[in-house]
Amino acid sequence: MAVTDAAIDKIKDMIVSGELAPGARLPKEADLAERLGLSRNSLREAVRALALINVLDVRQGDGTYVTSLEPRLLLDALSFVVDFHRDDTVLEFFQVRRILEPSATAMAAVNMGPDDIEDLRGILDALPDDPSVEQLVANDLEFHQRIAKGSGNTVLSSLIESLSGPTTRARIWRGLTQEGATVKTQEQHLAIYEAIASRQPDVARAWATVHVAGVEQWLRSAL
Q1: Shared domain check, 39 and 23
Q2: End of a domain among 19, 50, 68?
Q3: How many separate domains does the chain show?
Q4: Global pTM value
């Protein structure tokens, strides 16, 4: 194992064990290096690597702190990796969406409060009567992200948000090339909303599955 990797593991162990809690300040560099049996250079490399994935926050002139370790923050690194997807893997992203989003939608039907449901309806109402493909896709992204957040599971919400980017271009492509795609999307969004608003998680799950699977099926044919 590389020296830097070992240093990363030792700092991670301190965090996982609770010795360094979220928001805690790391000991001074010289003290921590001696305690962990590391060179100061190795420790700096480890801190730099952990800062890149939002585990540590280096504050110039103040010190180094453990971040809040919230899933949204930690999964930013996943978003960075996902941005490097190739066009031939976009179908796999839809497959993952088909697994995750129906569950999130069912959870939202149970967990969303009245104000959250009203906000969800507001997203649908904000779409113009004759939207452009770009307006529809932007509305679609906002709608699904709001549902994911409404699931009450921050990890699930962050994962779904991270996976949205690679599917955006395919959604636009479908809107431009498939006849009736705009109307079908709006109808299915309304059905999902009504299932959530009426507290029917199984129905909400079913409509979300139909919605995502429909785009996936079209993409398979198009490819």
Answers
A1: yes
A2: 68
A3: 2
A4: 0.66
